[in-house]
Amino acid sequence: DINMKPTTSILLSALALSSVVDFADAHGRMLSPPHRGHIGRLPKFSGLVPINYSDNGLSAGGIGGTKGGKHGVCGDAYSGVREHETGGTYGRFPIHGSKVVGACYAPGSTVDLEIQLTANHKGYFQFGLCKLSGKDDKETEECFKALAQPSGETQWQVPPGNQVFNMKYVLPSGVTCDGDSHCVLRWHYVGWNNYGVDINGQEQFWNCADVYISNTCGASNPTPSSAKPSTSAVATQPPRPTQPQAPSTSKPTIPTQPPQTSAPSNPTPAPVPGQCGTCANCYYAPTNSCYAGWSATQCAEVPGLKWCGA
């Protein structure tokens, strides 16, 4: 109607735009433990695993490819080349073994996981663990067992924002994997911003990371990451009464990847908010936490952190 009122035209344009936004691509990746397509970006693993410069887009071909319920186990298209599965371009464990293991955790420990969303489409995260007994064994969908948060919840609801999110999940106490046996920790992101359709009408992502679960983590096992800290803001799940925070034995819940050659120590409380207290390294006042293994320069690059070292 050429006589359409301006307000009506604006409204229809807004509705059309919203429908486009709903179906635009989401993007995200697992930073800690570093997934197979991302780990090559970290200096410690440079030259061992190639870099996937689209490591935040492993949606198994998008909704068109997954609407029938089929997908590659680690985010590759179901009918395509499985580059991110064991033995693929980025799944280098059969070749390099422990040299490409991105993290080592204690059995039964509560671990800090780190996810970056570069295009947030609401929804939820969930995580699974698959133990592979042989060096050339490959993960399958049936192998993955769901992990839960300390509260028992398996789904982590995504808050708004394009940023780095941290969440805690508990590893099974009866599972160990090291040497030629290793475990695959998988992130699964289900976006939920497409109205009126089920999970197969939502965009989904999968990332796989090679990890060890062992009582002897440390001396020769790789740490979760060795990248330079980013300058992103601290982002954590908003407090929820059904999801109490439990003590962690893994790396600190700061959305950066501290450069180090040994696993970071557990945060130790500093007595006076805003001051260093007993902290002699990198201090985070909102949670009274002290993070060891950082340099003054690295600490200064992260907003909200204060250098308290000599």
From TrEMBL:
GO terms for molecular function: metal ion binding. The keyword Metal-binding applies. Residues 223-237 have a biased composition (Low complexity). Belongs to the polysaccharide monooxygenase AA13 family. It comes from the Eukaryota. Residues 71-211 form the Chitin-binding type-4 domain. Residues 223-269 are annotated as: Disordered. This is Chitin-binding type-4 domain-containing protein. The keyword Cell inner membrane does not apply. Its cofactor is Cu(2+). Residues 250-265 have a biased composition (Polar residues). Transmembrane segments: none annotated. InterPro entries: Cellulose/chitin-bd_N (IPR004302), Starch-active_LPMO (IPR052282). Residues 1-26 form the signal peptide. Keywords: Copper, Disulfide bond, Glycoprotein, Metal-binding, Signal.
